[in-house]
Write a structure and sequence with these properties.
Elements lengths: L5 E7 L6 H11 L4 E6 L6 H12 L2 E5 L9 H11 L4 E4 L11 H9 L4 E9 L4 H21 L12 E4 H10 L11 H7 L8 E8 L11 H12 L1
Parallel strand pairs: 1-2, 1-4, 2-3, 5-7
Antiparallel strand pairs: 4-6, 5-6
Helix pairs in contact: 1-2, 5-8
The structure holds guanosine-5'-diphosphate and magnesium ion (MG).
Length: 234
């Protein structure tokens, strides 16, 4: 299968040690696939590594969001990347190798079969400390309740950062609900789901195992919890 109808969007903040390996694996596994790196002013060599990958494989774009004066944030970066894509389908994933690139093909298949959203579902979490599991579980319960009360679409992992969408569908929902997307937040899939009526479109789950980071550190923290609470209310 050729993947010229697909773009992978990678939001990045200091992922110089991960991004080249991930792009290489994507390019070798999925012939013709496009990659967009939506960067928020990384201070390491994320930019240079992305440019190097573009020279090697072609169709690897770097969006220098800081230089463009764009709103900083993971959700805002993902939206920028999707806007910038030129393909029918877009797959969003972390640049830190925590989302296994082998699952991209499975998500792609679901989109080709007509699903508007295909979500990578964390089947198990390796070695998370107790407090992180506790906070995460509590937010998940509230998140599901918010979607249920609003009659919105749900899925097996409403906070997944690994998902594929039909670009036209995503942009349609986004353009009608811009203010409900929390640009600085970490949960763009949740913002999308809450704006879609339950059973309006076909959504599917694709299980995978979430890995610990290979290099660099997580940027998730208390501030992201506050952004999520803002998302629950909007
Ligand atoms: N563009 C952009 N990317 C970000 C930002 N914060 C995190 N990222 C990237 O988003 C992905 C997930 O972030 P990470 O810190 O690993 O979150 P975690 O997996 O939930 O711990 C990684 O590719 C990060 O480099 C941000 O503010 N802007
Ligand atoms: Mg991560």
């Amino acid at each position: 299968m050729r993947y010229k109808e697909f773009t992978v969007v990678l939001p990045t903040l200091n992922e110089g040690r991960n991004v080249a390996e991930l792009v290489s694996r994507l390019k070798k596994s999925y012939i013709g696939i496009c990659v967009i790196v939506a960067d928020d002013g990384s201070k390491d060599n994320t930019r240079e590594e992305t440019i190097r990958m573009n020279k090697k494989y072609g169709n690897v774009k770097f969006i220098d969001r800081k230089r463009l004066g764009r709103e900083k944030g993971l959700t805002a970066s993902v939206i920028d990347g999707i806007k910038e894509s030129k393909t029918k389908y877009v797959i969003v994933m972390d640049a830190d190798m925590q989302h296994p690139y082998q699952i991209v093909g499975k998500i792609a298949m679901r989109l080709l079969q007509g699903d508007k959203v295909a979500v990578g579902i964390r089947a198990e979490v390796e070695n998370w400390p107790f407090y992180r599991k506790f906070v995460s579980k509590s937010l998940i319960v509230i998140g599901y309740a918010v979607l249920f009360i609003r009659g919105s679409q749900s899925c097996g992992d409403i906070f997944s950062g690994f998902f594929g969408v039909d670009k036209e569908f995503f942009m349609g929902v986004y353009s009608r609900n811009k203010s409900r997307f929390v640009g600085r937040g970490f949960k763009v899939l949740f913002d999308l789901l809450k704006c879609v009526k339950k059973n309006d479109v076909k959504t599917s789950d694709v299980p995978y195992v979430f890995r610990n980071r290979k290099f660099g550190e997580s940027k998730a923290g208390a501030k992201q919890v506050l952004d999520l609470l803002k998302s629950f209310a909007s």
